[in-house]
Specification:
Number of strands: 14
Shape: elongated
Strand order of the largest sheet: 4-3-5-6-7-13
C-alpha cells in the first residue's frame, strides 16, 4: 500500500498526463485537495512539495498552486539513450524472446531499456504510462492492453503523440491511433490453423479464443472464414471465448464440458500454445488420446510447443525477429522528423506441423 502522500502525487500526475490541467492552470486549493483525498494538510503539502521539486507544479505566494511547463522540460532535455518497453507480460511465454531482439539492437547503439508490464490490465497500463512518462526517455515500444476495445487511456497516448515522443506498437494496435506497428497477420493465421484441420478431414472443430485483445478476435475471424470456404459443412464450428481476467478453473471447466459431450469435437484450434497445453492436459485427464482421438493446434510456436510429450502443431510467431525489427524501427523514429516516413510491418504466419494433429478417423 502506497503512503497517502504518494497516492496524492500519483493522482495529480495523472491529471497532468490526461491534460485535465494544462501548464499554468490553477489547481484546487489545499483545503479542496484535503477534502478530495480525505487526508491531512500535512499530507497535501508534502505531496505538493515533492511535485514542485520534480518541476510538475509551482506556487505563487498568496495566489495558489499552478501546473508547471513540465512537458517543455521533457522536450528540451538532453537525449538519455533510454527506450521504454511496455508489454502485457515480460518474464514468460514469447515475451523474453521479443525483448532479447529489442535489447540486442539497442545495446549495439548504446541504448538501455526500461521494462514494464500491464498484465493486460487497463488500470496498470495507465499507472505504467504515468511512471514511464515521468522519466527521461527517448522512445517507447508498447504492446496495447485489451486492444479489441477502444483504449481507456487514449488521453495519455494523445499526449505521447502531441509531444512527439517516438512510439510504436507491437503484436497489436489501438483503434484510431496511427502509431507505426509490427504485427502478425492473425486473421490469416487463424484461417491457416482451421484450414489445416479441415484438410485433415475434421468437421466438428472447436475454436477457443481470447476476445479482449485484437489478436484473438482476428484469429477467431480467420477460423470463421475458413469454415465459410466449406459450404458443404452443415456445422459452422463451435466456440469458447474468454477474457484475460477469467479464472483458469472456469475456462478449464468449460473445455471439460465440451470434451465430455457425446458429439465432442475431433479438432480444436487454440488461441495460443498455453491454451493448447491446457486442452491437451484436460484430454489426458479424460482419457482422450491426442492426436488419435483429438487433434489440437496452437499458436505462436512458443517454447511450450516443443516441451510437451506430444510436440505441438502451431502457427509460428516471429518473436525475436519482431524484437529486432522493433529495435531498428524505434531508432529510425528517433532519427526521423515524422512517423510517416516509417513503414509498419505485417508478418506472414507460418504453419509448423508436428505431432498433435492427424487425419480424422472415418
Amino acid at each position: 500500500m502506497l503512503p497517502k502522500y504518494k497516492i496524492v502525487i500519483e493522482e495529480i500526475k495523472s491529471w497532468l498526463f490526461k491534460e485535465q490541467f494544462l501548464p499554468h492552470d490553477k489547481l484546487p486549493t489545499e483545503t479542496q485537495l484535503m477534502d478530495k483525498f480525505n487526508v491531512s494538510r500535512h499530507t497535501i503539502r508534502r505531496a505538493i512539495g515533492d511535485l514542485e521539486v520534480a518541476n510538475y507544479l509551482y506556487r505563487i505566494q498568496g495566489g495558489g498552486i499552478f501546473v508547471a511547463d513540465w512537458e517543455d522540460k521533457r522536450i528540451n532535455q538532453a537525449p538519455t539513450k533510454t527506450i521504454a518497453v511496455l508489454t502485457t507480460h515480460i518474464a514468460d511465454y514469447i515475451f523474453p524472446n521479443i525483448i532479447v531482439g529489442i535489447e540486442k539492437v539497442l545495446s549495439e547503439h548504446s541504448f538501455s531499456l526500461v521494462l514494464a508490464s500491464t498484465h493486460n490490465d487497463v488500470a496498470i497500463e495507465r499507472k505504467s504510462l504515468e511512471n514511464l512518462l515521468s522519466q527521461p526517455i527517448d522512445g517507447m515500444i508498447i504492446e496495447p492492453t485489451k486492444s479489441s476495445f477502444p483504449s481507456q487511456n487514449i488521453g495519455m497516448y494523445k499526449n505521447i503523440k502531441k509531444n512527439d515522443i517516438p512510439c510504436l506498437m507491437i503484436n497489436s494496435t489501438y483503434q484510431d491511433m496511427d502509431f507505426p506497428f509490427l504485427v502478425v497477420d492473425d486473421f490469416k493465421g487463424g484461417y491457416m490453423a482451421t484450414e489445416h484441420l479441415l484438410t485433415l478431414g475434421h468437421v466438428k472443430i472447436l475454436g477457443i479464443f481470447k476476445t479482449d485483445d485484437k489478436q484473438g478476435v482476428n484469429r477467431m475471424n480467420g477460423f470463421i472464414a475458413a469454415y465459410q470456404q466449406q459450404p458443404s459443412l452443415a456445422s459452422p464450428g463451435q466456440f469458447i471465448t474468454f477474457q484475460t481476467n477469467e479464472e483458469k478453473k472456469e475456462l478449464s471447466d468449460r473445455i471439460r464440458t465440451v470434451l465430455t459431450q457425446s458429439n465432442r469435437p475431433t479438432g480444436i484450434v487454440c488461441y495460443n500454445d498455453q491454451i493448447a497445453f491446457l486442452v491437451i492436459s484436460i484430454a489426458k485427464e479424460l482419457g482422450i488420446a491426442v492426436p488419435d482421438e483429438l487433434s489440437v493446434i496452437g499458436y505462436d510456436d512458443s517454447p511450450i510447443a516443443k516441451m510437451l510429450d506430444i510436440k505441438l502443431t502451431t502457427i509460428k510467431h516471429p518473436k525475436e525477429q519482431m524484437g529486432t525489427d522493433a529495435g531498428n524501427m524505434i531508432l529510425k523514429l528517433i532519427g526521423s522528423q515524422t512517423s510517416k516516413d516509417i513503414e509498419s510491418i505485417v508478418y506472414e504466419p507460418e504453419l509448423v506441423k508436428r505431432d498433435s494433429t492427424k487425419k480424422v478417423k472415418k
